[in-house]
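Bug report

Summary: structure tokens for Olfactory receptor differ between web form and batch submission.
Environment: batch mode, default settings.
Steps: 1) Submit the sequence below via batch. 2) Compare with the web form result.

Sequence submitted:
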Amino acid sequence: MSVLNDSHYQPPFFLLSGIPGFEDAHIWISIPLSIMYVIAILGNSIIIHIIHKNPSLHEPQYVFLSMLEATDTGMSASTLPTVLNVFLFNHREIEFHGCLAQMFFIHTFSSMESAILLAMAFDRFVAIHNPLRYTVILTRSRIAQMGMAATARGVALMAPLPILLKRLPFCKNIVLSHSFCFHPDVMKLACGSIRINIIYGLALVLCSFGVDSIFIVLSYALILKTVLGIASREGRLKALNTCVSHVLTVLIFYVPLIALALIHRIGRYHSPLPHVTMSNIFLFLTPVLNPLVYSMKTKQIRSALHRLFAFKRA
């Protein structure tokens, strides 16, 4: 107890939690979770594979899509070890530095995904507004630079998070609210001043997700303006149809993210269940739904998938 009362104490581990109130059903909950992980990792990997193997899909739109799927795969891989440990084996311990590392990767991949969604919105704007110069504007080198910029931004913005947490004493509870390490969840366990952490957390949300969402909305405002200038109804519908998959993906990503941010602000006064549920939806469903959306809504991806599985059967 004297160690726990030390104001500079950092615990050797944290204790992860599953879904509050459903502890007895964790083994059953692990079944759909395992299926979701298989769909997410396998589905995203298959789309990356078919884009890589089909020269007809080496257009900017599909290169950005492969970046998105790679990011989703990374996000799933970041949470998988601890989530399945908690729900399958009831193994709740996670080493302190391992928790900080997992938190860094979860938030970095989230920031990268937001940046890639912005790049995809720009891609749709160029394709509709200036189709004749589409491949001239979005060259391979420029796409690679945009991908590296998304990665560099994510790493640069999220690297201070574990550093800021490591300077704090943890002399209170060591039980986290999730089956993975999430910055606001870890931060609230500290018994020192977390003012800097709160300010920096808010700043990086505004500088990454906030800025990205504003520019995505602006891109679609310009797309709508361009589409309304197309003379034929068929032309307008065709142009808008190329954006459907991306719009659905943006909604899948940002709606749970916004809901999660709101719950974090008011969740201290309510049951942790909505907070935990929305976090799980954000981190688990996004990597699952994205490959399904593009498989169903994008004709070229559907055709490539059909050829792939037809070849496997043959």
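Above is the batch result. After comparison, the two runs are identical; trailing whitespace caused the diff. Residues 157 and 204 are 6 Å apart (CA to CA). The chain has a mean pLDDT of 87.
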